[in-house]
Each structure stands twice: as structure tokens, then as C-alpha cells.
Amino acid sequence: MERKNTTKTIRREACFQADLRVRESEGGSDSRTIEGYVLKFGVRSVLLRDWWNPYYEILEPGCVTREMLDKCNIPLTMFHDRELVIARSKNGKGTLNYTVDGLGTQFNADVARTADGDKALELVRRGDLDGCSFVYSTDEMDPEAVTYEASGEKDADGNDILLRHVWRIDNIKDFTLTGNAAYEQTEVVAREAPDGYTFDRKAMKMVREADVKADRAALEAAEAKKREEEAVQQAAAKKREQVEQLRRAADTLREFIN
Question: How many domains does the chain have?
Fold first, then answer.
């Protein structure tokens, strides 16, 4: 079934084990710089669920670029709390720096000398915060941004598990420090649509079931048409054989008469 050419910008959160650490200063003491990976390419998530089938998500290499990041206003927060900003990159400049390499996106942040900054440094040193998360948006309906395929696996309830490949991220809303990396444990994910657009889970399930039903009906119709064409071809072949038999019988009769 052909997918409709529509646009739906979906807001998603992805969390990773980040190898967070506080960088050592030249004198050997701890600095105020936190560094680690905020995202990693090619890593399959744990089993996630939202509107459709359960799925694994993979952020493909190239889905994030330096050029895209430099267009964003990215605060570094704790727990996605915009009141707990400890560093920031605005259009590629600021106290939050990043690089994109073959593994993913690595960052380092010059943490603010505030109570929140001190708290972040202490929690990272202790290992209480060891993961990173980021909120991103992409066009769910654009096959150049997101694609799905069957994984060949089923969940405990017998549902088919999909693979969700993210090929392009359009915007980053924030980086955050977390002790709960979603790529380390099962988590129910919520996607957020643009303002004014709401999702009814029951309705979305009905749409999905209707799509599957339509796909099945289209397949059955195609198979029925193929069977009909084969039947017509067989009937035509049988008729040609009958005509050939009559021609041979007529030839035999003429030879007998002569």
C-alpha cells in the first residue's frame, strides 16, 4: 500500500549509556568539564512501544551532522528540566561543545559555577549520572528520514517486532544528563507531535489495522487477478489445442477421401 505524501514532525527522546566523566585538569585535579557521548550510531535500542507494533530503534550513521547541530539552540540540562541548565550551545557557540565522529556525537561542557552545576559534577563523579538523553524531532512520514522493516522477531505477546531506522534528525531540543538510559532497559516511549496535533491511541490502532486490512485486501485482489489471468490463458491454450485437433482430424479425413 502506497504511503500518503504527508508530513508529521515527531518529537522523540533517545537515551544512551554515555561513559560520562569529569575531565581531569592539567594539575591532575578534577576540572569543571563533563564529557561523554550523547548518542551513538548503529546501536539497537531495547524493545520500545508506542502507537504501532513494538520496535527496536537504530540511529543510523549520518542522521546527525555538525551542520544541523550548529543551527540548534541546545541546553545541557539534568533530567530534561529546563530549570536545571548547566551549559548551552547556541548556533554552535557557547559552553557546550560537540563533535560528530564514527561512533556518534561526543560532547564536552564547561559546567556553570552554580548549585546545579556543582550537583551535576558531583553526581557524575559518583557515577549516579552515567547516561545521556536527547530530545529530537524528525519527519516520521518521510522515508528519507525514517523507515521501518520487519525484524523477524516477536514479543512475548506474539506481536511482530519492527526495526525503526532513523536516517535524518531535523532538530535537537536538548542534551540531558540522566541515570536512566533508555537504551539499557525496557521503557515505554512517548512521542510528541507538533502543537495542535494530538494522537488518539485507539484511533491510531484502528488506522494501523485498517492499513493492514487494506494491504491484505490489495494482495488478495492481486492474487485473484493473477489466477483469473492464468485461467484465461489456460482456456485459450485449451481452445487452441482443440482447434489443432480438429485441423488434424480434417486433414486425416481429406486424405481418406482422396
Answer: 2
